[in-house]
């Protein structure tokens, strides 16, 4: 039988191995635990496109009169109730062929509003859609289990809960001079969807609105967070830039130069 002094390092080694297997997020063998709810994150092009300093073909802000004028999709995010979220849950390299039938809709409603490639979990850099699928989509199991389902589900939820329409109907229209009460914007969404959204601002301008859902896609409240918005916010109108904006000084660069 081994002496006590020989058993102590053995025990320590076994404990360390057990800790490594359980992982810091409390999951067995490195898998992340199942998420609690979904957040559909929507971006406001009027705010983001105002920050565009140069144009490239991948940036929807640079489409001139065809640039988006409604909230567009940032992503569908599986989240935890404690304010954290899982990411990059398994290796699944984005394959654009799997969503070929959705590309027209994705270009229109889920475009990148930036130049340059996005970081991906395992392959370095790729399309904005690759980033969202690999980082968030892979963590949406067991509700969503493959790339096509991730994109079609997100589009369907986006069409069903039309924030731009709700805000327009309540009088919150794009404007470069008006300021609106943040509480009024939140109430308009609460009255329509029966759930409280999260609003993210860049200075006083609304940059993102997040809608939250249970796993069956029934609306639920987002987490009560300290909002980044002041009491009165703006919903900037899109200012044309890109190929048609002859007066604009914005330079065109290739997507690769934007990296
Ligand atoms: O908010 C800044 C970035 O953090 C990521 N995020 C935020 C909230 C949340 O619930 N889940 C989440 O992932 C987003 O990162 P992205 O998807 O853009 O890489 C968000 O932009």
Describe this protein's structure.
The chain is an alpha+beta fold. The protein has one domain: Ribonuclease T2-like (Ribonuclease Rh, Chain A), CATH 3.90.730. It has helices at residues 4-22, 45-49, 103-109, 128-135, 147-160, 163-169, 182-193, and strands at 37-43, 54-55, 72-79, 118-119, 125-126, 180-181, 198-202, 205-213, 219-220, 232-233, 251-252. Strands 1, 3, 7, 8 and 9 form a five-stranded antiparallel beta sheet that branches. Strands 2-11 form a two-stranded parallel ribbon. Strands 4-5 form a two-stranded antiparallel sheet. Helices cover 28% and strands 17% of the residues. The model is unreliable at 1-6 and 8-29 (pLDDT under 50). The structure holds ligand U2P. The site of ligand U2P has 6 residues, from strand 3.
